[in-house]
Each structure stands twice: as C-alpha cells, then as structure tokens.
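Budget justification note: compute hours in this period were largely spent on complex prediction jobs such as the one shown. Inputs:
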Amino acid sequence: MARLSLTPTSKLISSGFVWLLWIVLGFLTSHTHADTGLTVPQRVMLSPNWDTQELSISWLGGGATTFDLIILRTEFNQTVFYETVSPTVNKVSGLHQWTWTSVNPLECTSLSVKIRSKDGQYTSEWSQTETLQGNDHPNSEQSVKAFPQDKVLPVGANITFCCIMDEGMVFDKIKYDGNATNVTRLSRRTYSTTVSNLVASRQSGSNMLCLPEDKGKLYGAVVFVGYPPLPIDFKCETYDLSSAVCQWGKGRDTHLHGSQRGTRYFVNNRDCSEVNQDVGQKEATCTLDTWEGNWTLVAKNLLGQYSLTDTAELSQRVCPVAPDRLSVVADAWNASLSWHWKYDSYSSLALVCQVEITATEDGKLIKRVFSGVGLRSVFLSDLYPDERYSVKVRCGAQQNFWKWGKWSELSSFKTNIYVPDTPDAWIWLNTDNTGKVVWKPLTRRQSHGKLTQYEVFLWSPEENRALAPAVTLPPNTWSMPVNLTEIAFFSNNGNIVANVTARNDAGSSPPARVHLTSVEPLAASRIVNTDQGFPLFWENNANATCGYVVEWLDAFCPQDCPVEWIKLPAGTTNVSIQSDMFQPGVRYNLSLYSCSSDTRELLKRWQGYAQELVPSVALTLSASQQNADILLTWKEIPLVNRRGFLLGYNIYNSTGYQFKLLENVSDPETMSYTAKDFAKGFTKGTFKFTVKAYTAAGENTGTTATVTIEPYADWLILEILTSLGLVTLLLAIVTFTCYKKRKWVKKAFYPDIPEPKLPSDWPRTRGPLDVKPSPHSMVCVVETPEYDCIKEMLVAIPEEDEDDEGQGIGDESVDTDEPTSLRYYNQVVDERPIRPRFPDSSASSISSMSSAHTDVTYTGIQTSGSSLVLQLDPQGSSECHQPQLDQSVSYGGGGYRPQMQPRAPSDDMGLPSPESFLEPQAACSGGYKPQGSWHFDSPVDAAEMGSLAPSLGSPTSVASTQFLLPDGEENTGEKRQLSSSAASWLTNLLSSTKP
Amino acid sequence: MSLCFWHAPLLHQPSVDYLLFLCLRKKENFTEDVTDRRLVSVPPPSSQLDTRDKLWRIHSALLQCQKLLEKAVAKEEEELGGGKKGEYENKRKLVKERLPLLLLSTGELLKAAEGTTSLTPSVEGLELNVPTGLLDLKLWVYRVYKEVNYWSKTAANTLKDLPSVIVKEGARTTRARNRRSTRR
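Corresponding output:
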C-alpha cells in the first residue's frame, strides 16, 4: 500500500525529467542542424500516376542537394525504398521533385513517405510522414479490388498484380491464366504476385483471378500481352492518275485487337485505321486524294509505333484499274474485243494489255498481249469456228511499267460456224475386189458446226463424169461399201476416184479423193515396236506427189477389217506409228502407199507386234524310241496363236525332280529333234520330254511327251561280258600278285608259330588233371593225338596275360570284366615254361596242368558262368592217345564246348552221346558254339570228319577269324578234306611258303 | 480438338447455349461456380403456379435473357473483339439467332393459354449495368450465358410438361405467323 501511495509522486518526477531531457536534446539538435544549414523538408506532397505506377514526391526546403527518402508500406511498416536521392529543383518555386516507380500498383496498399535533408554525414530530421492511401484502406470507397486493370504489356515483360480482399474475406490464391502463382502479402488485406516473361495473350487477354476461399466472390484483372506493330512493304501507286493508294502488309500479329488496343495506321498523318481493322486481312490500304510523292506510314499501338516511307513519281506508279464492260463481236475464225475505262485520263495513257482467252471445250488457254495509247479494243484472230470462249483483260502502263492492273471480269462469246474440214478418207479392199471407202469422223474442231451428212460419189477423172449418183450418209456413218468389179463395169478405164465430203449448215467441205485401185501385195519385212511406236523408214518416192499413206490393220483379219491410216506429206521418209488400236500379241500389217493424182501405189509392207507375248497354245508333241535314240516330233503352232515371232524351241528332259535343257532349237521351222543315244544309259525307265516354243517374250508352257525306254539287250549283254572280263582280270592280277608276294603274305597273315621249349626241370610226372570249375571263361584246347605225343600237356590258360605271373592267376574279376575285349595271341608269348593259371587249384591240378605244355596261349574265349574241369586219363595213359575229353571235361550249364568236340561223337571212339554227360542243364543250354565266321573247319566238315574234325589242329579263337596253327598242322591239314576251295587254295599257298 | 468442344462428350445432349457456356469457361479458365448472383429476375417457382403463370415466368425470363445476351455480345465485341472470328464467335452467333425462336414459341403458347388478353412481360426493370473492368465484363458475360442456358433448359422442360392442347394451339399459331412472315 505504501508503494502505491508513492507512485504518483515518482511518476510526476520522472515525467518532468523526460520532458526536460527532450527539450535539452531538441535544443542541442536544432543547434547542431543550425550549424550545418540543413533543415527539415517541408510540405511533402505525393502525386501518384496510377497507370504508370509512378509516385511523384515533391517538397520544399531542406537546404541540401541530396535527401534521404524512405518509403514504407504503411500497414506493415515495411520499407519499400530507402535511398539517398538527388531531386530536381524548380528554381522559381524552390520545389524539389523526385519520382519513384513502384513494382506494385500504387493502389495495392498505403505507402508512407518521409524525407530528410542530407549533406555528407549530416542529416536533418525526417519530415512529417506523408501517406498515399491504398485501396486496402478501410475508408477506401473504390470498388475495384484487383490491380492493375486491363494493362497492355509487351511480350517478355514482367507484371505484378495485387488483390485486395474484402473485409472478412479469406484469401486463397491468385491464378494467372489458370495457373496458381506465388503470393506475397503486402498488407492485412492485400496480396500480390509477379508474373515474369509474359507470353502473347489471346484476343480477349489473359486473366488474373483473385480467388478467395469463397469461390463465388471471384474477381481479378485482365492483361493484354503482345507486340508493337511492324508493318512491311509500304508502297503507293495510282489508279486514276491523280490520287495515291498506299498499301502495306500488316506484318506480324501484335495480339492486340479491337478499337481499344488494335494498331492504328497513319499515312502522312492521315488516319487510315478504320478501313484496316479486319484482322484476317494481311494487307492494308489507304487512299490519299492527291499524289504527294513522299509518304510516311506510322503504325501505332499501345506498345509502340513503327514508321515506313515511300517516294515515287506518279508516272512510275501507274496501275491501271480493271477494264470494264467487255464486249465481243465474233466471226467464225476471229473476234473483236472492246472494253471501257473507268477514268477518262487513260485515253492518253500508253497501255500494254494482256488478253487471256480460254476455250470452253478443252480449257486451252491462249495469252495474247496488245499495246497502244488508251487501248480499249483488240482483234482476236485464229479462233475456231463454232467454239465457245471466255476472255479477260488486264493492263499496265507501257512506259515505266509498274505492275499489271487487276483482271477484268470474264466475258464469254461463241464464234460462228464454218464449212467442215475435208474428211480424211481411205479405202480398204478385200482380196475379191470388194471393200469399203472409210473416213475418219470429224472432230468438233474439224466439223466447224454440227454435221448434217456425208456425201460419197464415184468419179472418173479421165472421163470427167460421175459414175453413179452421190450417196448421202448420216453424220454418224464413216464408211461405204464398194465393189470394184461392179464399178469397173461402169467405167471405161480403171481409174476411179471416190470423193467424200462432209456437210453442215454452213455448206459442204472440200472433197476427199480416194483412188479405188487394187494393189499387188508385197512381201512384208519384220519390224519391232519401240516406245515411240513402229519406226518406219523408206526412201522418198518421186511419184508421191500428194504424199504418203501408212495403213495398218490386224494381219490375220480375213474380211472387212478395221483399218487405220495416217496421211503424210510428200517428202516424208519416216514415221513412228502409234495407235490405241494396237493390242499385245497381235500381229499387224503396216503398208506404205504413195499418193499421186492418178493412183495409189503400195511401196512397202511390214509386219510387227506392238508387244510380243509367249505363244498362247502348246505344241502337239509325239515321242518315240528308235534303238538308243529318242525321236521327238511336233506340229507347227498356228500363226494366230504365236503372239510373237517364233524364235525356236527349247527341249527339256525331266527325270524326277530335274528339268534339264537338252537342246535349244533356234530354227522355228524345225519340227523334230532326236536325242541321240539317250536310251544307252538306261536299262529301263520312263522319261518325259517337254518342248516349249519361245518368242521374244519367252517360252510357252510347253508340251510334255512320255517315253518308256525298253531294255536294250545288246547293250546288256555287252555290259555283262565286260563285267565278267573285268572280274577275271582282277582275279588274275590278285593271284599273280599273291604268288609273287607269297612270302610277304605268309609273314603277314600266316606267320610260323615257334616250337614250345620246355626247361629241363620240367616235372615229368603225370598226375591227374584236376581243374576246378572256374567262373572264368576258359579256352580248352585239346591236342590232337599226334600232337599229344609230342606235347606232354595241354594247358588251359585264362585270358589274363603273363603279367599276372607271380601274383597268381585266377582272379575271377579279370575274366568277367572283359567279356568283349577278347584277346588272342597267335605268336610266341613267352619262352618261359607255361605255368598253371590256377594257383588256388590243388597240387594235383597243378601237376596235371603242367603235364602238358604248349607255346601257344589260347585266350579270348569266354563263356560267362561256364566252368571247365579237365580230367585226364586216371591211368595216366593220356600221353599217347587222345585224351578222353568227353569224359574228363565236365560242362557247366551252357559252358564252353571245344571245337574239336563234335556234337555227334564218333561211334569209333566209343564215347557216350554228349547228352549223357552234359547233364540236363548243359543240354538245356545247348552249350557253346564257336563264334568265328571264317570256318576253316566248318561244322559240316567237322561232322564229316567225325572225331577227327578238331584234328584240323588249329586251335581256333572264337574272337578271331584267323587260325592258330600248331606245329605239325601241316600234316594234320593234309589229312583233312577241305571243301572250301578258297580256303584250300590259301592253305596250300601258305604251306608252300613254309621253310 | 476445338476448344469449344472440350466438354461436349461429357454431355448427354449438349445444347448450343450450353456449349457456348462451356466454351467461354474453357477459354477464360473460369471455375464452374463463378456466380454470385442471378441476373434474371422472375417470380420464384412454385407448385401453385398454373400453366399460364409458368409460361409467363419462362417467357419473361427468356425475354430478359435475350436483352442480356444482346448487350453482352455487343459489349464483348466492343471491348474484346476485333480479332479473328473462331468457334466461340460462331456459337455465340448461333445462340443469339436461336433465342428469339424460343421466345416466339413461348410467346405463342402464352397467348394460347391466356386468350386474347395477353399480358406481355416487360423487361423495363432489367438491370443492364455492364461492369467496366474487362474481367468483370467477362464474368458478367459468363453469367449471362449461364442464365441463357438455365432458362433455355427450363423452358424446354416446362414445354414438355404443358398440356398438349395448348402446345398444339401454340404450334398452329406459330406456323401461321411464320407463313405470313414468309409471304411478306
């Protein structure tokens, strides 16, 4: 409470102190300013230019040449401008003035301005703030809330818009041409946006829309963006020889249109805008009453102006107006055209006029130029009778020609009719002297009016009288039949002329004269058509006083043929004939006639095709065999079907898929072909021959004839004999060669087998041979009795090689692993004694095995699962007789059966039948059979020889086609009756080589 | 594609006035709901209104639309025209030509409904104050088109629901009048 009671007192003291301080400071300050001579600017005035957004600021006093100027947005107290400026001074009034241009429209928001004098470092007090009230002020009564309104700017400029929201309205965004923009807030209710680098706007301008959140309250402004005018080609000319008409091009589109913003044109300060507002018109004109000689065009719009000048004498710029009121007076072949001029002054003007005449029928354009002073009529010659024309005229100054004036209106006229042209007549005669006088229809241009009839009358020039009354024919008839035989009856001599005339309303044409004389046919030469037609050449004929006629028609037309012709002037020696009549593949006769006053004469004839084609029909072909030859014959293709000049025939032979050209017969007259010795190469078969005729266009599809070749017996016999002779010769050569090289052959194919060598300590005791059944395939070699006498033991060796020595033999896997790689040795394997290959066998077995020996190793015969047990004679008497193999060898099912073991044991040997000891399973399996193909000892032989069959002595490997011949085989072989002669021969041959 | 046909595929059977409305909207990038007030002033619709009153209301509105449209076209041509005539100008011309025909029809129907003592609606009180700013002018023209479109559509719907007797009578009178004007 005490504090509160003290407060008023302290407040009073403090406020008194503040006041005192202010007074002191004010005094000091004024004293300081008084020292520098700077005073506070007075009477600051603001003069806005709303359109240019310029704010003119003026004030009085200040005592300085420079002033600090600060401009702030009043509401937000934001500094917009703060610089030291040097204003202009009105020396009379002493008023300082400086102009500031605002980025934002001045209406957007209130602006406050303060100024102070400045002289170096010294400044005066700020002047009183002067405020330019914006439209966002609450007191503002302006209804427009968006600025600037309806501004016109050049393309590329920038613009800043502002929107002033109504009280209570919430701002949303500003859109320019449909796009939202970046917005800056200027005051509580004012927002602005700047659009840079403006592009040309459409005709109605680009819209800036102020969008409050309440979309219904839309408002904004329009801006027009375009270009200043840029007119081109400014020229002035005269039509009436007194006034001037200036023209220019509007140039580029300014994008500013309408009376408000469109371009205004002035020629020599005369406003020519009204007549040139049409945007679609690219040219503008302005008429000046007098010829001034110098003109300046100024084109203006809100963005700028552009000037063009032109200078010329009147005589250099005369452009006559279009001739007026054309009139034509026409004759049959010409017409007189006249017109009027709009200005009388043209009567003394030298003019050059261009007349354009168009024939209505074919649209053909004729241009003619006439000249003269004050020209107003021309004579048009070389027109066609009975023809409709349209004509127009334009003129220019003949002297100092500047340009053609405008074309006159079209004027139409029709020429009068005239007598027709002479018809183009000719005569066609058949071989029987009948024929017809023909003439070409007259075209419209030749008729010179509508034809009413043709007249033909026969005339004897020598007798100078008509041979018959004139025949009148309707205008659509172009031939008249004649019979020379009948006509000759009326004439005393053969010289008769047919006169053909055409008639229209204007009269008859001059007659066409045709001599009715028959001509002798001439031989035709061949002619080839070209792109320019049939090129015909001939020598000039002195008798052809009235020229030549070339006539052409279908060569195969028999009677009353459609004929065409062309008449050529005298002296002509060549022509190229082209006609729509020409058809591909049709032969035409072309005839050259000379024309004289007396007669006509056939001078030359040609034949040719406008375009050659392949023959349209195939040949009639027949084929026959004559011994080894094939004769093909065919018939000629009819002329009408050839469709080209026949050049020859191609003869093909087709065998299966091949189509081979046998011969090209280049003579089209040839109708047969003989394929010489064709059948020689074949014993029998069917062959096709195709013959195709060809022209310059190619060959036709051809005709095929089939020939079945019969066996050619002579050739067959000869072939057989030749073969036999060759075989005999070959055998002789082989025999001779083998004989000569028998040593080499023996060495190569039948080398000697060395004798086995037994060591001295070889046990001689005989023991029973006990060979355990082995899972291995075995080779069982049974020595012949003779051999047994020499060789003590027979050793069965598995196919393992000698390398297994020392490691023991009998590894079962060895055999079973190599069932297909059977090896066979027929050479000396080792000099060492052969040892038993069954180390796991009993000693007795070993001894029994060792009781026999051989230097040949038999391997390679395997039968899976077979076992072999060799049991020698228990009495040990196996040495000098054949071992009882059939008793001592037991066969596992399907096991090995030695080759020497006959299937049917010999009764002499007293052996039981194989079935008795083969056991049931052996019987079922059938046992082993040799696989060798080359049976030196064939089963048959073996059977024949009974138990001696194996005694051929050759241990045979089933894996080989060769024989292993033991020593002494020679003797053994001699005992055998070999049925194969080749084998016998070879054996003998080889035996003879043995040393 | 022409600017003026931009939205046409979206409409079932777009009338020319609607197409004109759309055309301007598209051309000037206006939003759809640019409208703050109605320009045509007629009594509010009511189920109490009889046929004659309905016709009178429609006819009165169309009369106002015609006046507004004429003013809008003239002002638009004056302030924003002068350029090349395009699709928009063609449509505007078409609408301007067709609106009197609709007015003629509704007028005849009104006469047929009222008998000889017809009370012709007046447009004297119509506010034709055209804004001075160009954007405001554009928006005003836009509103005029919107009114034309609205009242054309309303007229079509109303005529569809009218008793057939009145329609036949109106049609006969219209044909007769057309014949007379043709003879002249």
